[in-house]
Design brief:
Number of helices of chain B: 4
CATH architecture of chain B: 3-Layer(aba) Sandwich
Number of strands of chain D: 12
CATH class of chain B: Alpha Beta
Strand content of chain B: 15-25%
Shape of chain B: globular
Number of helices of chain D: 11
Largest sheet of chain B: 4 strands, parallel
Distance between the termini of chain B: 25 Å
Distance between the termini of chain D: 48 Å
Strand content of chain D: 15-25%
Helix content of chain D: 25-40%
Chains: A alpha/beta (about 650), B alpha/beta (about 140), C alpha/beta (about 290), D alpha+beta (about 350), E alpha/beta (about 375)
Order of helices and strands of chain D: EHEEEEEHHEEEHEHHHHEEHHH
Number of strands of chain B: 4
Largest sheet of chain D: 8 strands, mixed
Strand order of the largest sheet of chain D: 3-2-6-7-8-9-1-10
Order of helices and strands of chain B: EHEHEHEH
Radius of gyration of chain B: 14 Å
Oligomer: heteropentamer
Shape of chain D: globular
CATH topology of chain B: Rossmann fold
Largest interface: A-B, 49 and 50 residues
Helix content of chain B: 40-55%
């Protein structure tokens, strides 16, 4: 016989308006095993919590049911409440009478009837609840950060500062990420390189950071506290241990590849460092464009290298790294705007995308910081910046890319400064919700940038107007005056959507993350756990979670570092207790559990002919239990009999 | 009085249950005939649960999970889909009206879809009348 | 000499050879029962035992049923007809037996008869294949050109019924059930012991033989066999009250083949369908 | 007392019996013949060999409610199911099955405790035995002769019925039987010739030969105790056994049962229902220990219980040789052959 | 007097109820207006129409007839608003009671009384055929659905004939509908008279089922889109250009006569292109013609420019300078082509009219694909 207490929350009027709460408590009192039932205005408030705790003591309760908001809201709160009153936290059942009852109907009778059924279900289930005890495992103190952009760099540095060993994995030959391509940053207009390169250098200097550039994550095994990660070191064809970064090789190399850093505006050598401030300052050979790899002769770099560091025989190598936590900061890709034929990118030379313009601004860029047309000399006298290209667009990416308004303003400012031309902003809505952002917007308005509220419909070079000949014509409605406007300009800048990395899904699969409907990594909870993922011990930071600007990416990097630290700072860690176990007496040895488990938690013991579950790997999804024909697997807290009892209670009335 | 069906809902914690919560947070109104059991994943659903629900007198059973490919446990609902598909065939061949059992993928952001599915399913079940085929009769 | 006699002769010959040579420690085949029409499953362990081996049209038993009880590494020769061989394949998939432990004696045969009624069971209660899908030694001549229609033809009547009529049909059949569990015990795929029905927490179905419990037991068992049932018909032949369980199993086998493009027990490399998923799976199957 | 009725008037007799109370008689199902409570007189058939299930269910139903209860707030209310069997008749019980009732009586009534559930129904039921047709050969599985039963044995019957070309002849065997015969006005009184015919026919029953071996209860009982530890023998004899419960459930003399409380929502029933020593969980203890984990052990238990322990406890073998266990066995295990080989060891 | 206005939400709701509720998704970015071919030449503003509808403001009546339902804005709309539905709903709410602009009154009146928009006598529907071509009957494969326009409009009758001739030469089993055939109802639906549309639809569905027609060839893309999207799914409906491309591929008809270096440009009809996704078949037909050089205009395929004839536009008079067809002719002329080919009776009527009013008859001819094809067969 259980001693159950039922506590009905009014949630102000949120519940009490539609559910007759006192009738509910009255009903609960008639149920077998319920020894006390009370209703109260705010059960989650301190007096409400005390009410529960007092009743636990007074009535010697061994099960507690709280009828209130969704368990996703306050289950943790009430678990703490009963634990502090001496009850095991798993002896709690939450009845959702708000989100799934009082808020979704206006009919009092209907709402109250449903609430009664739900409470009855909870009583049936509560009788069978079992106290569960958390387990502890050893924790590996090291952390891996994947992605060497600003978010990843920040996370790595923070962690290194606390004395933790960090592996920073970056797939390109240098860290720095997209931020390294920028000239200035909004809204403060400070030099991107000036704030980024010291951090990059700090990474290099830190004795706690092991920098793994030109590397990719190949395989992930293990679980929170104890990940085993296999890293592929892609062949650089340059022995970095021998290389003294003299870069003589890059001067002599006849091979030419497209400069990723300069967004393809110029070529780079086949043996190269991506940009002068790259970290590490050691080159790699781009096999695709290397004359030796293509034609079988050349080896000029080898000849000039005094260190004999060139190694054409180099192969990809693998290494295993053990860490306790992982931070993914893999960033974003810029949307390819070529398919949006109405804007002419790729066809009309005057049309640029945002990152190309960033490179034009940059003094280390292909034009040494001069804004010129693709001919390399003509300075544009009029420029239109087109917002929301592929963002907020059902046909492309439905979400707002969040940073474009602000960098478009930055562009406008820099264009004004560098070209003194006319600058148009074609926007749908100006979004400036950040510290100093609105002020920046105001500043640009004052700088006489022409704001046209309307999304550009077309860019063309065809015109009947002889005054416009040779110009690009941007067609747009100025929605504020309802007039169709054609703007002749020299240059058009597209602000394309930020989208998930092309291989984000693969990465998600490696780490067992889920992705949202756009393909960004899914956080555990949008508000309360924005840096955590469904995989314990794997955190996310920066634009891999959703489009973000630098301040937010940096904050997230720092936050993720702190999150990772909460795990690796401890020697041992507590694991979720609601996991599955095998009743070996009932196990028929069919191995269905082994076959289905996404986490590899069940293992087959060939000696005993039964399955065994490694609880450290188990996430408690219950797939194995439903696949077990002999009912031998017990998914704790969601056991077959608990679920069946709850169903029975729900269906009684 | 109109027949008000009793429907058992089984919803996964991460998507459908959260989606149902969202329907509440956005104050959508829909019929209250579904009483939901929360499980961690749709793959937790043992097909016998469905049979049992009908035996307990459920007039309909509505199962909700994450969209295939979006399972919080990676692949859980891909297995669940097969399990539930076979369950559906079993019910149908045993003589249960197939419309009494429905599986829907409803994500955490699809509060509206949840409300719509519940409304549609409730109406479907209502049209079928009380379920007596599996229901245990207490004499 | 009839085909059956030839099989019997080959069976004895091969069994003797295998036991004598020590290749296997047991030959699972058929032995004499209390009369001609009632042979028994028989495990020959010695050369002397071989004389007791028989084969005739009543040797319907699916001997794969006995395989999982032998400890791994026991070398076993097992005589299998077509459906029985599929059971062996399915058991290998499920790692209940190891291919390397088996010498499979294939029996190509049609015209097997039900012991109770004497009716030919091809095409009715079995998968209607003539030749084993996997064997090491064939005990008779491979049968060519055997056509008996689809094993699912027998479903036409039930599939044609409306839901109410089907429910009435099964209700009547299940009410006969006496819970002797011969069906699950005869089934080569039902190797769970204890079975889910024996569990006390939860009690999936009434322990006492109530119609509601029968329904839960049979439907759940059908589910457990979905994608695994190799359509040997053994459950229905074992049933002392003649419940046509095979009809339900066939229906699910048919549906699973349609949905998952995989028939049970055809290839040892397959993964059992219900603990797998496919890229071609679609929500169509839930319609 | 001897009475008779013309064959074509069987329906009238059935109707008359149905007026007395529930009547159980053989009915043809889709495949097998079985005893059922008759609702339509035309359903009764007398052209059958033997029923698939034994008639023991009439006194020992497969499932029987003992107590009904309701879980309450403070306490559980419960109520014993009252014993209110109606006077009933079983028509057409074969001699071996009729004999089984006597054997079962020893257990349910003669062990010092009277089982009220058995007793209530047994007392109120009249059994009309029915001789095997001498012109039909015995089923190869049958061996009731071995247990000393003939095809026209009247033991265990209250009334014994024999069919002639045109008539059914009824002879009262017990007082209860005579009483019923008297009450049945549809029956004609039997003439002297009829009595002669009955005797002749009864004698002919002896000509029906089932499988037979000479056994003595005590000797067999003792032999089985000797053979008990011969693991090799038992393993080989039961190698094919799949451990289902078919043999015990069809058996007229198996009486093991289980008791369980079954609750739905808050109403429940305590039931007793057949169990089988062939099931794995039959002897499974709460600790998880199982004294009979192996199939041969369980099969040995069944054989020894019937042929040895029962002899020790109740003085007779608990088997009537009806052959049902052999016929119903999915793998054709034959208890007769096992006893035969055990005896020869 | 106050100039303040108040939202009139009942009107907004009425529009939503009439099927235009998609406007609620609109976030007023102006992509539609910027895309709209009318924007450079008229004051029609589709975004504003949506804005007014959202709040039920006055002024809807002034804007609602401007749209020719070319679907360009729908394809571009970042919010996925079914803008044509809104136009249709607005028209049905405001003009449902018969408040039509005068030119459309005659059009609707003719449809109501005679079942065609050209005030033609119903019994004379097939007069163009002069009994040379078979009627469709049970057992025949293809029903060649003649658009009212090709039956009654003297210019388009040539298209009807050319099509029928090609069908005769192809050896297919085909037939014409009887004179009980009526307008598919596309335009009147877009004009907002849904009751009349239903009447026409039911009449035509009756003909399909009475004659057992399962495969329908349309010559007008407007019939094509309407049958496909509004009539149900029991029929296989194809446009004649698709059939023709198939016939050429399978060798059933082979163009032989060399056109001698004829420069042809092709105008994508909105209802064949954006509404039905058919861009390649007409081009395949043109490229199969010997001696024909296909030169493309700037706005083609998905970005094609509307002729202005859709959504009732064919029956509305527009002032010079407000005609899309004029712009289109100019664009065609700029390619150097001497033939402007297209595949829609409405486009032919509109473009032909522009050629005439622009006095360009000696520079360029408007021809249907079928006409060009037939010419190359007659070699």
């Amino acid at each position: 016989m259980s001693r159950i207490g039922v506590f009905v929350c009014h949630c102000g009027l949120n519940i009490a308006k539609t559910v007759r709460v006192s009738e509910l408590a009255e009903f609960a009192r008639t149920l077998p095993d319920v020894v006390v039932a009370e209703d109260y205005k705010f059960m989650c408030s301190t007096p409400g919590q005390e009410l529960i705790q007092n009743d636990i003591r007074k009535h010697n309760l061994d099960r507690v049911i709280v009828a209130a908001c969704s368990p996703l809201m306050h289950e943790r709160t009430f678990r703490k409440v009963i634990e502090n009153a001496g009850l095991n936290q798993y002896l709690l059942s939450i009845v959702n009478v708000r989100e799934q009852d009082s808020w979704v109907t206006e009919d009092e009778d209907v709402a109250t009837t449903k609430a009664k059924a739900l409470i009855n279900g909870a009583v049936f289930r509560a009788r069978l609840l079992q106290p569960l005890v958390s387990r502890f495992i050893d924790v590996n103190p090291d952390v891996m950060v994947v992605g060497g952009g600003i978010a990843g760099i920040q996370a790595a540095l923070e962690l290194a500062d606390t004395g933790k060993k960090v592996y920073l994995v970056e797939r390109s030959p240098t860290i720095g990420g997209h931020m390294a391509q920028f000239d200035k940053t909004f809204p403060t207009l400070d030099c991107s390189a000036c704030i980024l390169t010291p951090k990059m250098d700090a990474v290099l200097q830190s004795s706690n950071i092991e920098l793994l550039t030109y590397c990719e994550v190949e395989e992930v095994k293990g679980f929170v506290g104890n990940f085993d990660i296999k890293i592929r070191q892609k062949a650089r064809y340059v022995d970095h241990d021998k290389c003294n970064a003299c870069l003589a090789c890059t001067e002599k190399c006849p091979g030419r590849g497209v400069s990723e850093w300069d967004e393809g505006l110029v070529k780079r050598k086949a043996i190269y460092i991506p940009f002068p401030q790259a970290v590490p300052q050691k080159p790699v050979i781009d096999r695709e464009n290397c004359t030796f790899f293509k034609k079988g002769k050349c080896r000029l770099c080898e000849k000039v290298c005094e260190q004999e560091a060139i190694d054409f025989e180099q192969k990809d190598t693998f290494r295993e790294v053990k860490v306790g936590a992982v931070i993914l900061a893999t960033g974003y890709d810029l949307m390819d705007t070529k398919p949006l034929i109405q804007y002419g990118y790729g066809k009309l030379p005057g049309v640029h995308h945002a990152l190309e313009l960033e490179r034009l601004f940059n003094s280390a860029g292909p034009t040494s910081g001069k804004v010129v047309m693709r001919d390399g000399k003509t300075e544009p006298q009029s420029i239109a910046i087109l917002h929301c290209i592929g963002s907020r667009d059902k046909n492309n990416h439905e979400y707002c890319s969040r940073v474009c308004c602000m960098y478009s303003l930055k562009f406008a400012h820099l264009l004004k400064e560098k070209t003194h031309g006319d600058v148009y902003q074609l926007y749908i809505d100006m979004r400036a919700p950040g510290k100093g952002y609105e002020e920046f917007y105001n500043r640009l308005v004052e700088e006489d940038v022409k704001f046209i509220r309307g999304k550009a419909a077309r860019v063309t070079d065809k015109t009947d107007n002889p005054d416009h000949a040779g110009k690009l014509i941007v067609e747009v409605e100025d929605t504020l005056t309802s007039q169709f406007v054609t703007i002749p300009v020299d240059m058009v800048v597209l602000s394309p959507a930020m989208k998930p990395r092309q291989d984000a899904k693969d990465m998600a699969r490696l780490f067992n993350l889920s992705t949202d409907k756009y393909g960004f990594f899914m956080e555990r909870h949008p508000k309360l756990a924005p840096l955590s993922t469904m995989t314990d011990g794997v955190f996310i930071a920066g634009a891999c979670q959703s489009p973000k600007d630098i301040p937010d990416s940096v904050s997230q990097g720092t936050g993720a570092a702190a999150e990772a630290l909460t795990i690796v700072v401890k020697d041992k860690m507590e694991l979720e207790a609601a996991t599955a176990i095998v009743n070996s007496a009932a196990c028929c040895g069919c191995q269905n559990c082994v076959r289905v488990c996404p986490y590899g938690a069940p293992m087959f013991n060939y000696e005993k002919n039964v399955s065994e579950i490694n609880e450290a790997l188990c996430k408690g999804c219950g797939l194995c239990a439903a696949s077990c024909p002999a009912s031998a697997i017990i998914t704790r807290h969601f056991t077959n009999d608990q679920v069946m009892a709850e169903m029975e209670g729900l269906m009684e009335f | 009085m109109d027949f008000e069906p009793k429907i058992l809902g089984i919803a996964c914690n991460w998507c459908t249950y959260t989606g149902a919560d969202l329907a509440g947070t956005t104050r959508l109104k829909y019929p209250q005939n579904v009483r939901t059991v929360r499980v961690m994943c749709s793959s937790r659903i043992n097909p016998s649960f469905i049979i049992r629900a009908f035996q307990l007198g459920a007039d309909g059973v509505l199962v909700g999970g994450c969209h295939p490919g979006d399972c919080h446990y990676g692949t859980g609902n891909l297995y669940a889909r097969r399990k539930l598909a076979v369950t559906k065939k079993i019910l149908e061949f045993a003589g249960m009206e197939p419309k009494r059992f429905r599986v829907e993928w409803i994500s955490a952001s699809e509060g509206k879809k949840y409300a719509e599915v519940v409304e549609e399913f409730t109406n479907d079940v209502k049209a079928l009348g009380p379920q007596t085929k599996f229901k245990i009769r207490k004499d | 000499m009839t085909a059956m006699k030839k099989i019997e002769e080959n069976l004895r010959k091969e069994a003797k050879r295998l036991l004598e040579g020590g290749e296997v420690s047991v030959v699972l085949a058929y032995g004499r029962g209390y009369d001609e029409n009632h042979p028994m499953p028989f495990a020959a362990r010695t050369v002397e035992d071989v004389d007791s081996l028989v084969f005739n049209e009543y040797c319907t038993f699916n001997l794969a049923r006995y395989l999982p009880k032998y400890p791994p590494k026991t070398k076993i020769a097992v005589a299998v007809k077509a459906a029985d061989s599929r059971a062996v394949v399915q058991l290998i998939q499920e790692e209940k037996v190891r291919r390397e432990d088996l010498v499979i004696l294939g029996i190509p045969v049609t015209g097997m008869k039900d012991q109770k009624t004497g009716e030919v069971i091809d095409n009715k209660t079995t998968c209607n294949m003539a030749n084993p899908v996997l064997y090491d030694i064939l005990l008779g001549d491979e049968i060519h050109g055997f056509k008996g229609g689809s094993p699912y033809d027998v479903l036409a009547e039930l599939e044609g019924m409306d839901h109410d009529a089907r429910m009435a049909f099964w209700k009547k059949e299940f009410e006969k059930c006496i819970r002797c569990f011969a069906c699950r015990k005869a089934c080569p795929m039902c190797y769970c012991d204890p079975c889910f029905m024996d569990a006390s927490r939860p009690r999936w179905a009434d322990k006492s033989p109530t119609p509601d419990g029968h329904l839960m037991y049979h439907l759940t068992r059908f589910y457990h066999l979905a994608g695994r049932c190799i359509d040997c018909g053994e459950c229905s032949r074992a049933c002392p009250v003649d419940i046509p369980l095979y009809l339900f199993h066939k229906k699910l086998a048919k549906e699973c083949e349609d949905m998952f493009q995989q028939a049970a027990g055809m290839k040892i490399e397959d993964k059992p369908a219900m603990v797998n998923y496919g890229n071609q799976d679609s929500d169509e199957m839930l319609k | 007392m001897l009475k008779k009725i013309a064959l074509e008037k069987l329906g009238d007799l059935v109707s008359a019996l149905m007026e007395k109370g529930p009547l159980y008689a053989p009915v043809k199902g889709e495949k097998a013949v079985d005893f059922q409570e008759i609702t339509n007189p035309a359903d009764v058939i007398l052209d059958f060999y033997n029923t698939a299930m034994s008639p023991k269910f009439a006194f020992f139903p497969q499932s029987e409610d003992l107590i009904r209860y309701r879980l309450g707030k403070e306490a559980t209310e419960s109520e014993a199911v009252s014993l209110d069997a109606k006077p009933s008749v079983i028509l057409g019980v074969r001699p071996c099955d009729a004999k089984s009732f006597e054997i079962m009586d020893r257990h349910f009534l003669g062990a010092g405790i009277i089982d009220p559930y058995w007793n209530d129904k047994r007392e109120k039921t009249t059994i009309i035995g029915y001789a095997f047709d001498p012109s039909t050969a015995a089923d190869p599985a049958d061996f009731y002769n071995t247990l000393g039963i003939s095809a026209s044995d009247t033991a265990g019957s209250d009334i014994f019925m024999i069919r002639t070309d045109k008539h059914l002849l009824f002879k009262g065997i017990t007082e209860k039987g005579d009483r019923l015969l008297k009450e049945l006005s549809v029956l004609e009184a039997g003439s002297k010739t009829d009595e002669k015919t009955f005797e002749d026919k009864a004698k002919k029953g002896g000509e029906v030969k089932t499988r037979f071996m000479e056994i003595q209860d005590k000797a067999v009982a003792g032999k089985l105790v000797q053979v008990f530890n011969n693991k090799e023998f038992w393993e080989k004899a039961t190698a094919a056994c799949i451990s289902c419960g078919a043999c015990t459930f069809v058996c007229p003399t198996c009486y093991c049962f289980d008791i369980s409380d079954e609750t739905l929502f808050r109403d429940g029933v305590r039931k007793r229902f057949w169990d089988a020593c062939m099931f794995t969980d039959f002897t499974l203890e709460a600790s998880g220990h199982n004294p009979r984990p192996r199939i041969f052990q369980r099969y040995r238990q069944k054989v020894c219980h019937k042929y040895s322990y029962h002899v020790d406890k109740y003085g007779c073998i608990s088997c009537v040789g009806c052959g049902r266990c052999t016929r119903s066995c999915p793998v054709n295990i034959d208890i007769y052959s096992i006893i035969e080989s055990a005896s020869k060891l | 007097m106050s100039t303040a206005v108040t939202p009139y939400l009942e009107m907004s709701q009425a529009i939503a109820d009439a099927g235009g509720e998609a406007f609620r998704k609109c976030y007023q970015c102006g992509t539609c207006t910027g895309t709209c071919p009318w924007s450079p030449i008229t004051h029609f503003n589709i975004r504003k129409l949506m804005r007014l509808s959202q709040l039920g403001f006055d002024g809807i009546e002034d804007l609602m007839w401007g749209c020719s339902t070319c679907k360009f804005c729908v394809d571009r709309c970042p919010r996925g608003v079914e803008i044509i539905d809104l136009v249709r709903s607005v028209r049905s709410v405001y003009a449902g009671g018969g408040l039509l602009p005068p030119p459309l009154r005659a059009f609707v009146g003719s449809l109501t009384a005679r079942g065609n928009p050209w005030t033609g006598d119903a019994p004379k529907r097939n007069d163009w055929a002069q009994d040379k071509y078979p009627l469709f009957a049970e057992g025949k494969e293809y029903l060649y659905w003649t658009c009212c326009t090709v039956c009654y409009d003297p210019r388009n009758v040539l298209v009807a004939k050319a099509t029928a001739e090609i069908l005769e030469k192809s050896g297919l089993s085909w037939g014409l509908p009887g004179t009980d055939a009526q307008c598919c109802g596309e335009s009147v639906r877009k004009v907002g008279d849904l009751d009349l549309f239903e009447k026409l639809k039911n009449n035509n569905l009756g003909i399909f089922s009475a004659t057992g027609a399962k495969k329908i060839i349309t010559i007008s893309p407007h019939c094509l889109a309407t049958f496909k999207q509004e009539y149900g799914e029991d029929y296989e409906v194809i446009h004649f250009s698709e059939l023709l491309a198939d016939l050429i591929k399978s060798g059933k008809v082979t163009p032989t006569k060399d056109a001698g270096g004829l420069k042809v440009t092709y105008h994508d009809p909105c209802y064949l292109g954006r509404h039905s996704g058919i861009y390649d078949a007409p081009r395949e037909v043109l490229s199969a013609l010997p001696g024909v050089e296909l030169v493309e205009m700037d706005r083609i395929r998905e970005q094609s420019m509307c002729c202005g004839g859709g959504g009732g536009g064919l029956w509305v008079e527009r002032a010079k300078g407000e005609r899309l067809s004029d712009l289109r002719i100019e664009e065609a002329l700029s390619t150097g082509a001497t033939v402007l080919a297209t595949a829609c009776p409405y486009c032919i009527a509109m473009l032909e009219d522009s050629v005439r009013t622009m006095n360009a008859e000696d520079k360029i001819k408007v021809k249907d694909l079928t006409e060009l094809f037939l010419e190359s067969l007659e070699g």
